[in-house]
Amino acid sequence: MAGTAQIELLPAQKVAQEVKVLQAPNSVCYAQYGDTHLTAQELERIVQAVPNSIAAALHRRAYYFVPLTISENDETLVAPEFTIDFSDRAICHRNVEFGNSECIFISTRLMQDRFALAFEFFINVGHHFVESIGVPQSFSDLVWSQAEADVRGETSQDAFESRRKATERGRADEKAKTTFFDASFSDAIAIYLLSLSIDFDYADLREREYPLLTAPALAERLRHIASLFPPNAGYEFEIKYRRRG
Question: What superkingdom heads the lineage (predicted)?
Answer without folding.
Answer: Bacteria
